[in-house]
Amino acid sequence: MSARDDILAAVRAALTDVSPAVAVPEAPRAPDRGDLVALFVERVEDYRAVVTRCNEADLAGVVAGVLGERSSVVPPALGLEIAGSVVDDGLSAAELDAIDAVVTRARVGIAETGTIVLDHQPDQGRRAISLVPDLHVCIVDATQVVADVPDAIALLDPARPLTWISGPSATSDIELDRVEGVHGPRTLHVVLVGP
């Protein structure tokens, strides 16, 4: 047993009969906003992202139209054939940097904040592919849209890597000049599937 294990065992033993000093309050809930999908679209567009709605039958054509002539990478289990796309099998950062776009699915969309969460399952791929190409085309099913962050947290596994996306990557310098694409994709295009 290591010193770390000894210390953690001592802490666990000391906390065996201890109850929390205060009850943890419930997270505040957003008021009923009606149509969650419409609110999600509104909030995503507020972040300067583009949203295209379609049905499942038209999904492949819509994604192809968004990509146009751009080179693209997809995760191994995207579940959608995209002509000319490279399937990520551990591409290097330099190889990813040479690719224009990435297409992924999402784990959940949050209506209140316009945030998309990836938990990097096989249909979303590893984190690097969602951060390096300049365009991120993210497929969100309307059934994945939840009201607020507490609803999203309830669906997520905290042991998985999570990427929370609220619009294109952006930052501001000291003069408050907005610069996009510094820490991730410069453009986010959400393809919303469903009614």
From TrEMBL:
Please state every residue range assigned to the domain named LUD. Answer: 96-193
Q: Which InterPro entries match?
A: FTHF_cligase-like_sf, LUD_dom, NagB/RpiA_transferase-like
Question: Can you say what this protein is called?
Answer: Lactate utilization protein C
Q: Which organism is it from?
A: Nocardioides glacieisoli
